Amino acid sequence: MKDFVCSLLFASVAPLATNAAIVLFEDFEDSAVAYSLSDAEASDGLNDYWGRVDSDGISISAANSFGTPPSGTSFFAAEDIGKDPGITGTGYVTFENVAIAGLADLSIGAYFASSYESGYFWSDGDLVTVQYQIDGGGYTDLFQITHNGSGRAAVDSNFDGLGEGTTIGQFQPFSWAIEGTGSLLDLRIGAASLGGAVSIAFDDVSVSGTAIPEPKTYALVLGSLAAFGLAFRRRQA
Fold first, then answer.
1. How far apart are CA 20 and CA 106, in angstroms?
2. Sheet strands side by side (includes 90-99)
3. pLDDT digits (tens, 9 = 90+) for 14-27
4. Is the peptide bond before 70 cis (omega within 30 degrees of 0)?
5. 217: left (phi over 0), alpha (psi -120 to 50) or beta
6. Can you tell me whether residue 71 is helix, strand or coil?
7. How far is CA 176 from CA 109, 111, 132, 169, 173, in A?
8. What's the longest Cα–Cα distance across the chain?
9. Which region among 70-74, 75-79, 156-160, 222-226 has the lowest average model confidence (pLDDT)?
10. Which of 123, 143, 128, 145 has its CA nearest to residue 93?
11. Of 2, 10, 61, residue with least CA distance to 225
12. Nearest 10 degrees: CA dihedral of 117, 122, 127, 129?
């Protein structure tokens, strides 16, 4: 009988366990996109480009060796964006109004890559950023890539303009836990300058969290347990 009671208790409490939920996943594999662009896609077909690299998107030089995309064959990439499409300042890929209501332990993830060509170097002004905001509360810096002092792209973990962290080569995953929760999240990836043959690519952008059971669920389960406990004690009497 005790085993039966334990099994019943486990079955009753199990619905209260939190469940992982992916509320945004963009792999750039088709034109049904979940984002908006600050500047229209453009490419010279070689080394000046901004957009989704795909057979029905933009084309780039085969010399851009970003490695194998994490899923499929498509990704978003940018190089020498001051020429094509003529971006002045920062160009943004923005994912707006991602529904996060009822979620905790929020996390953002993406893969990044940079194609290194001998004789071309990342320098001051070349910058890639990841930022987010919740319920329009203002964007917070989450991640930054800039030069490492030796011409390569690297993670700038303290946002001081010098990449002292992981060197960015072929596609590699990054993820970040973010604080707070709310109803809607906006996420944007920005690119500035990227002059000459300096390039960046990203793929599999995601937002996830854990679902929080509603209070009425707790009340229902606890009420059922109380009723069962009372009936069990009467039976034992």
1. 10
2. 36-37, 90-99, 184-192, 127-134, 140-147, 153-155
3. 455 558 899 999 99
4. no
5. alpha
6. coil
7. 6, 12, 11, 19, 10
8. 87
9. 222-226
10. 128
11. 10
12. 60
Q: What is the pLDDT of residue 222?
A: 46
The contacts of residue 202 (CB under 8 Å, 6+ apart) are 75, 76, 77, 110, 111, 112, 113, 189
Claim: this prediction has a pTM higher than 0.90: no
Both structure tokens of 94: 């923005």
Tokens of 104: 């905790």
Does residue 225 sit in helix, strand or coil?
helix
Q: Are strands 172-177 and 75-79 parallel, antiparallel or unpaired?
A: unpaired
CA atoms within 13 A on the CB side of 122: 29
Q: What percent of the chain has pLDDT over 70?
A: 81
CA distance 202 to 116: 15
Q: Is the pLDDT of residue 221 over 50?
A: no
Phi, psi of 57 (to 5 degrees): -120, -135
* Distant-in-sequence, close-in-space partners of 138: CB < 8 Å, separation ≥ 6: none
Q: Which two tokens stand for residue 210?
A: 């854990």
Q: Are 50 and 43 in contact (CB under 8 A)?
A: yes
